[in-house]
Amino acid sequence: MTGDFGQRLRHLRVRAGLSQEALSHAAGVSIRALADMERGRTRGPQRRTVQVLAEALGLDDDEAANLERSAALGRPRPRTATAPAAPGTLALPRDIRDFTARGPALAQLLDLAQDADPGRPAVAVVAGQPGLGKTAFAVHAAHRLAPHFPDGRFALDLHGMDPEPTTPRDALARLLGAVGVPDAAIPAGTDDRAGLWRSMAGDRRLLLLLDNAVDESQVGPLLPGTGPSLTIVTSRHSLAGLESVHRSDLSLLRREEAVELLTRIVGPERVQAEAQAARDLADLCGHLPLAVRIAGQRLLSRPHERLDKLVARLAAESRRLDGLQAGSLRVRAAFALSYRQLRPESRTFLRRASLAAGADFSPETGALLADLPHDEAVACAEELTDAGLLQSDPATERYRFHDLLKLYAAEQVAAEDGPAVRDAALDRTARWMLRRATAAALHFDVEQYRTAPHDGPEERDAPAAPHGDPDPDAAPVGRDNARAWLEAERSQWLAALRRAHGTGLHRQVLDAAEAMHWFSDLNQHWEQWVEVFQLSADSARSLGSRREEAVHLNYLAWAYNLCVADSPAALTAADTALVAARDCGDGLQEGWALGYGAGALHRLGRVQEAHARLGEAARRLASQDSPQARLAELTILNSLGTLLRQAGRAAEALEVHRRSEEICRAGIPGRTDDVIALYLAVAQQQIGNDLAALERFDEAEPPLRRALAAFEAAQMPAWAGPARLDLGQTLSATGHPEAREMLLAARDALAALKSPRQAEATAALAALDEAAA
């Protein structure tokens, strides 16, 4: 048999009873290389390769000679070392006509080519997650740069995602052949080949595209050492070990760029006819170039299909990856290539991290879900970042998925872990998160730290004893760190609260919510407090504790009143709390329920009913002797005075608020000076507003300044913002030069808090500007 080399090799391998893997092992030739030979992609392997194959196959001299003759027929004719590369030898792939965006990155490469040091070859690394279009960008850039490199433009796929990537030795052989070195003149060793390659490339203006590199050790020997060449390397890995290189870390497309790419693929008529569907499609593709291209190619092959039909299909997360495939182009396959390359621990970390709640997650969350030690989890996260599978936050140790990759990772949880392992991971994480969140929130306990009263009745029993942090050595220390942790992990501990509630851990839910309620004072703009206290009220009901149900329903009424401005829901929660409080004979909670209900009624415009409830609440609380009742009474009086002022009875309001001030100055047994000082600040804020309503602006300014200073010192933005607005309006009334600055700061602070009073600040500024004009 003397025909095609590939056919002959396959015949001899089958005759010998060997698989490709077995022959690869015996001959020391990669499976990839064997497959290329048998498929005819490699028609004329080198003589040494044929020799080792003949030995592994056990061929006699005649059979070995015949195999060598078959290989020789497929080899190109020898070229001299100085001849230009033959057309097609490692030629650049064709450029993509619809290539879109990447203007800044292209401009940087053009500058790199034009400003290159003749004695120092330039190297550009194009890295990033799967699907970013790294190869398409590099090929497009190479075609744009080609005129700058007249001595040769070569592209070599290093097969970095294959089970056996191209070895530096094999890659060097192909590069040397491309610049005209005959097979017989190519050295046997990798180092010798690298040396010859550097000498051949040293005086030439070459453009080299090394696509799909696996790591630095594969790329290093291929880089020219001197001369005016430019090498572009693409990789899913960061290749951080390559020194003195330019980096083009591609990012996701912007929405308009993704729509532009879609337009170039399917045509402007279809996109213009369904402009919103095109934007929605770009969003569902996560602005990932590969996903957008697949969607476009799919639509191109179905010229009569509407864009909104594909949008409807991709809208279901469970079907999205199935929908993002067109022929051999598949988003899932792109992710799978990288996933299979990972260590087992990193694969576990990646897929379990998809269970984390929120837009990003910390290494400790990943460690809990993957059941790995913290240090190992950090190592996995860094490996995944280097592999382009996670994006790291530039300022904090947090990580995020691309939306489509998160869907892929979640599929692997279902396929590799199953429901039992998944549930165990979520339960383990929820228990840990709730313990950490409870301990962190207790930093704001009223008995130990400064805290602020709610707007309306709010004094609550402090938790009896702090809960232990699950990892005391790494626990947040101090209020600032506790606040930072609670804010960063907001989505995660809220998801833990939901899971604990859903799995019947009602005591843990109540403990966490009870600890959280003081912290909620500092973050009234967080809408999730409604869900927190709804869950805790439900848990109290499940435990059959009417007193705790009343407490947490009151917290819920507060959240509805202040966090989401839902007065009807606040009134319902307060009325339900009132029934529970009366059922268990808790006068304190009865007073709170009456006060919260009054606040809701006031916001609903039912002023007389609100006034009546506040009066009843004050009487109920005055009959009790506890410190909690005194503070509750203070808050009721402040609310009553505010209602009077808003009804045009500012003089009566001032009397009520002066009474509150007197109670604070007299002191309340069992309550710290810091706590009383903040209640005093609330009274002073209201006194200032009363005086302003009476147009006694000069008298109003000092108490308002004292209130603002107290709230700022206590780091209470939810209270400082409104106080700053009150002071700004008073200063404006007197023509004070600080008025505009104060109102501007108030407007910005209230906007950040999503406070409805930001409109009031804007109006006050407009009035001030009009008066000045």
Topology record:
Blueprint (H helix, E strand, L loop, with lengths): L4 H11 L4 H8 L3 H9 L7 H11 L3 H14 L28 H12 L7 E6 L6 H12 L7 E5 L10 H11 L11 H12 L5 E7 L2 H4 L10 E6 L10 E4 L5 H12 L1 H6 L1 H10 L4 H12 L6 H9 L1 H7 L1 E2 L2 E2 H11 L2 H10 L9 H8 L3 H13 L4 E2 L6 E2 L2 H39 L36 H11 L1 H13 L3 H17 L6 H14 L3 H17 L4 H18 L2 H17 L3 H16 L4 H20 L3 H17 L6 H21 L3 H17 L3 H18 L4 H14 L5 H15 L1
Parallel strand pairs: 1-4, 1-5, 2-3, 3-4
Antiparallel strand pairs: 6-7, 8-9
Helix pairs in contact: 1-3, 4-5, 6-7, 8-9, 11-13, 11-14, 13-15, 15-16, 18-19, 18-20, 18-21, 19-20, 19-21, 21-23, 21-24, 23-24, 23-25, 24-25, 25-26, 26-27, 26-28, 27-28, 28-29, 28-30, 29-30, 30-31, 30-32, 31-32, 32-33, 32-34, 33-34, 34-35, 35-36
Describe the structure.
This protein has 773 residues and is mainly alpha-helical. Helix content is 63%, strand content 5%. The protein has a 5-stranded parallel beta sheet, sandwiched between helices. Helix 21 packs across helix 23 (490-502) and helix 32 runs antiparallel to helix 33. The model is unreliable at 78-88 and 448-466 (pLDDT under 50).
